[in-house]
Design a protein that fits this description.
heterodimer; A: about 450 residues; alpha+beta; five-stranded antiparallel beta sheet; five-stranded mixed beta sheet; about 20% strand; B: about 240 residues; alpha/beta; five-stranded parallel beta sheet; four-stranded antiparallel beta sheet; 9 helices; about 40% helix; elongated
Chain lengths: ~450, ~240
């Protein structure tokens, strides 16, 4: 999600720089296009024409005379001219349209000097004591008759522009924020589900609108993931199911030979080996099946509140009752008289303890003393299963602690393997949000720590 | 009287019980029959399918049923339901379906036990015997221990020609131990037998009752030879002539 807001911020920067670039471009275009117009305005502006015209007059015999060249220029441009003397009567004129009068009052002069005579835009210039007036063709120029602007208005126009600009920016930001939030809202379920999916968990995205398609694709990917997991778990469960029946027959007959009076010592010994190995396979397929069910969340935990001391007494007693050879001793000690209840799956916890007991027996063929104990500290309750047997060398312990089990490894299984039994124990403890600690010096010791849910005193 | 390796001559009547065995795998049928024969059960009715089992059940009225779950023409759960409609005989599932769900549905149908293949022959025998003992206990006669005899039907202990009556609690504790003779019974299981479900804090009372039972059954109560303590776990009743 963090990377996503970074993504949005980056887009904000792009957005802002695009606006700046557009503004710069606008200014450039304006300058380029209007440069010509401005130049044109300068070369043939009415002010310039009238200045030129005024300088081309000569006075002959008390009357004004314009040079023929300038007269032609004015004529070509469709400009008429007139000179009004101090009395208000025209003393010179050029191609004067009919509707233009020949005398003007002071009021007339003050009126047209800023605007039009009969809708001809006119420009004036003082010449000696008179006034030179040039009339441009109708509709060629627009004259602003009221060109007075109060200073207050002028300032408020500046503020107006600044205000509009600020408002625009603010509106842009609001639009940006709203769209960002909308995108976030639409995208966040997708991002979250991708997050879950990358951890191998199934998802179901409920997105509507434009992103519905993406949501559907993610759901489809999740379905494929689930069905693959299910297929794998079902496959393991099917195989283990099919092995059970023939294994029953093997175990049954081997046990029968073992207890047969007719069998000799050597045959009984071999039958015993078949029995033990069959039991190993039995444990293995059960562990494999359970581990795969836990791994792919195929089997919900069957949680209930139960007393760990009761469960441990039962597990340990059952283990002894099922025939523990005399070279092993197994005892149980509760270091607390209170009864600690935990919320968990009874069968799974029992399975974990049994696996640890089996490990102690299987890895110490010459016998050992196994000690199971229950202790508590600060709301944590821990089960300790320890033996004083051969233990494991440091290197192998590291492997047990850190190497991934072959069930979770992409590499070939050589060199990675450690027992299925211990792997399942780890899985069970993890599924109960517990902690597991494995140590080995003389003997092998596993401590499982769970959170106690309630206490009976 | 013939002495039996699983708990003395008093169990002979149980060996005459008829067992309905249902499994579609002939090898399993053959093997289970030989295991049961080894333990002196002779009255075994084997069936390879659902329909055959129904027929055999009607014809022979067995005393206990051992059922597989997956059958070619139906499943063991349906079979158990069908049997339950007519009879209260104990039912044990013996199946390759080991998942917790299957176990729950089996036990929910009122099965007395659920054994997952592969199984130890001994485990099967012990469970069948335990269930038979529990279900047909009105016929329970006397328990012979080293140094005394316990008559459960009259709740009496006969030691050195003296008769000691057993209280109700002592009776249920001793009976539970006897049903699991030779095996460790946890203090929790004993408390449950004496005080009902989910007992708590009865450990000291249990110790008092055990002491009184020892005074009645042991030649020397401070050095018990029949009712042994297993430290931290529970108690064990040693019955002579057991394997």
């Amino acid at each position: 999600m963090r990377s996503f807001s970074r993504f949005i911020k980056k887009h904000l920067l792009i957005f802002i720089s695009t606006i700046l670039a557009i503004l710069t471009l606008d200014v450039l275009l304006f300058v380029l296009i209007f440069q010509g117009t401005v130049y044109e305005l300068n070369s043939s502006s009415p002010r310039k024409v009238i200045e030129e015209t005024a300088s081309m007059f000569t006075i002959q015999d008390g009357t004004y005379k314009l040079s023929a060249e300038q007269e032609k220029t004015l004529h070509d441009m469709g400009i008429w001219g007139i000179i009004i003397d101090t009395e208000g009567s025209a003393v010179w004129n050029l191609t004067l349209p009919e509707e233009i009068p020949h005398t003007f009052t002071l009021a007339d002069v003050s009126e047209f000097s800023r605007g039009y005579i009969e809708s001809y835009p006119v420009f004036t210039k003082r010449i000696d004591d008179g006034l030179l007036v040039l009339g441009y063709p109708q509709n060629s120029y627009m004259k602003i008759t009221s060109n007075a602007l109060p200073y207050s208005t002028l300032f408020s126009i500046i503020w107006y522009f600044i205000g509009i600009f600020t408002l625009d920016i603010m509106l842009l930001f609001v639009a940006y924020t709203v769209s960002k939030r909308q995108i976030s809202r639409n995208i966040s379920p997708i991002i979250n589900s991708l997050d879950k999916l990358s951890k191998g968990k199934p998802v179901n995205v409920q997105s509507k609108g434009d992103l519905e398609e993406i949501g559907n694709r993610i759901n489809a990917a999740s379905d494929i993931l689930i069905s693959k997991d299910a297929a794998r778990a079902n496959w393991i469960s099917g195989v283990s199911h099919d092995i059970r029946t023939p294994l029953s027959v093997i175990l049954g007959y081997a046990d029968r030979i073992l207890h047969s009076k007719e069998a000799t010592g050597q045959i009984q010994e071999q039958a015993d080996i078949i029995c033990k190995q069959s039991v190993k396979i039995k444990g293995l397929i059960e562990d494999l099946n359970l581990a795969s069910q836990l791994e792919y969340d195929m089997q919900p935990l069957n949680k209930e509140l139960f007393s760990l001391s009761k469960l441990l007494r039962k597990s340990v007693s059952d283990f002894i009752n099922n025939g523990l050879p005399e070279k092993y001793t197994l005892d149980f000690e509760a270091e607390t008289t209170h009864e600690y209840l935990i919320n968990g799956d009874k069968d799974l916890i029992k399975r974990a303890v049994e696996n640890l007991l089996n490990n102690s027996v299987n890895h110490n063929p010459d016998g050992c003393n196994i000690h199971v104990s229950l202790s508590q500290e600060d709301g944590k309750i821990s089960i300790l299963v320890a033996d004083d047997g051969m233990g494991v060398p440091q290197e192998k312990l590291n492997n047990i602690l850190h190497a991934p089990h072959y069930m979770n490894s992409k590499k070939s299984t050589r060199g990675l393997q450690h027992g299925m039994g211990l792997h399942l124990v780890k899985k069970i403890v993890r599924s109960h949000e517990g902690k597991i600690q494995i140590t080995s010096g003389t003997g092998f010791c596993v401590e499982m720590v769970f959170t106690s849910a309630a206490i009976k005193i | 009287m013939k002495v039996n390796k699983n708990g003395g001559e008093y169990m002979d009547y149980l060996k005459e019980k008829s067992i309905l065995l249902v499994d579609d795998e002939p090898e399993i049928i053959k093997m289970v029959i030989s295991i049961l024969n080894d333990d002196d059960f002779t009255n075994i009715i084997a069936s390879a399918s659902y329909s055959e089992a129904i027929q055999n059940f009607k014809k022979t009225q067995p005393d206990i049923a051992v059922l597989d779950v997956m059958l070619p023409d139906g499943d063991g759960f349906q079979l158990a339901e069908k049997i339950r409609e007519k009879s209260d005989i104990p039912i044990i599932f013996l199946t390759a379906k080991g998942e917790a769900e299957d176990r729950f549905s089996g036990l929910q149908l009122g099965a007395d036990d659920y054994i997952v293949k592969p199984f130890f022959p001994q485990e099967l025998i012990l469970r069948i015997n335990a269930i038979l003992k529990r279900c047909y206990k009105e016929e329970n006669p006397v328990l012979h221990l080293s140094g005394c005899t316990v008559d459960f039907s009259r709740a009496e202990v006969i030691k050195d020609n003296d008769v000691y009556p057993l209280t109700a609690k002592e009776h249920s504790i001793l009976e539970t131990l006897y049903r699991n003779a030779g095996r460790i019974v946890t203090i929790d299981a004993l408390c449950e037998a004496a005080w009902g479900d989910n007992p708590f804090g009865y450990e000291n009372s249990l110790m008092a009752h055990i002491r009184r039972i020892r005074e009645k059954i042991e030649p020397n109560p401070s050095k018990p030879i029949s009712l042994l303590t297993v430290k931290g776990l529970g108690y064990k009743l040693v019955v002579p002539n057991m394997r």
